[in-house]
Amino acid sequence: MRYIVVGHPRGGTGFMSQYFKMRGLDVGHEVMGADGTSDWRLVANGSRGYANPDEIVIHAIRHPVNTITSMYLTTSDESKQFMWDLCGADDESRFERVCATYGAWHRMIRERWVPDFDVRVEVKSDFTKLNELTGSDIMPENDVNSRGHGDVAQEKWDQLTCELKVTICNYCYLYYGGDCLGKI
């Protein structure tokens, strides 16, 4: 069995690769390993049709506010531009563009990859099914964010368009019970 993990940049794909490696499985981060890959770029370049029947597709999800903050403050301009071009986020400010990619990216994951299941990388109980698949009972212990960074000023969140706030809030409700971490 091979594992294909897709998600938003800074959304837990590196963490998921580490999770599998802790279990002795070679699931590469942004490269194909013997047991699969965990790569945000697959969202743009592929679809479920590329997965073999014996592959499990996992949607790695990190809280929208944490993902957006991390991407805005740490991701290379080249990666951001790649996403903006793909998602059509041309007219907004840099921060708004990052926010716009969150909803667009997760829609592409749902439409193109049709994941077998979702894993919220901050929620340990979401790893129960993965543990069943991998024959392990080890739960992740380390922090999801591997790059240290500060916080985005509240005024940037406040200045988002209503449409972007609604999109982000919808994902907060869908995956985190409505908790927008006090930002929106």
Number of domains: 1
* Main β-sheet, spatial strand arrangement: 2-3-1-4-5
Order of helices and strands: EHEEHEHHHEHHH
Count helical runs: 8
Beta-strand residue fraction: 5-15%
Question: What number is the mean pLDDT?
Answer: 84
Inertia-based shape:
globular
Task: Specify the oligomeric state.
Answer: single chain
Distance between the termini: 40 Å
Using DSSP, what is the number of strands? 5
What structural class results from the helix and strand content?
A: alpha/beta
Largest sheet: 5 strands, parallel
What does this structure look like?
The protein has 184 residues and is α/β, with parallel strands linked by helices. The protein has one domain. Helix content is 45%, strand content 12%. It has eight helices and five strands. A five-stranded parallel beta sheet has the order 2-3-1-4-5, with helices on both faces. Helix 3 packs across helix 5 and helix 5 packs across helix 8. The longest helix is centred in the middle third of the chain and has 20 residues. The relative contact order is 0.18.
